[in-house]
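The material for today's practical consists of a large collection of protein records. A record pairs a protein's sequence with a compact description of its fold. Instead of coordinates, the fold is spelled out as a row of discrete tokens. We will come back to this pairing of sequence and fold again and again. Here is such a record, shown just as it appears in the course material.
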Amino acid sequence: MAVLLVAGSIACGGTNQATTTSNRPSLRPVALPDIASASPEVQSRLRERHESLTKTINNTGASSSALADAYGEMGKLFLAAEYFDAAEACFVNAGTLAPSDMRWPYYLAHAYRRSNRNDQAAASFTRALALQPQHVPSLVWLAEIRLASNQPEEAERLLQTARSLEPQSGAVRYGMGRAVLPRQDYPNAVK
């Protein structure tokens, strides 16, 4: 729950209905899930953010960017609290409202990854990379999914790109070692 408290400092709330204002796209409903098993502090934070998102949705003058941020921040809180379906709806909505913001497909990919939906996670990481091709965390996480899917050559290609951007990254180096193991390239794996 400590992760949730950190994420809570950057999170926003959810709602039970999609926006219906005529100048906004149709969005997925985002209900506050059953939070009874969460600590009282976490429950309080979720409820506060739920109210905040509801206010933003009901504010017909709120920009699409502000609404996207509200959904996205709520999604981060849901993700930290492991409410993956609710997080998914938030990130989809945020991405609909702000399609050029790579944060939302990136976080959506993590919601899919954490709920063992690797094909959807890979598609979302790929979308994030289409928006920001040099985003090293997306490259590393997509490579991780490729490794889990027994695609070490694709993982290595992604990690080589990441290494060219951040040669000292421990995550990139670790991934590279794992990517070359299937071809028994032990010296490079150790390196």
Remarks:
- The longest helix spans residues 40-58.
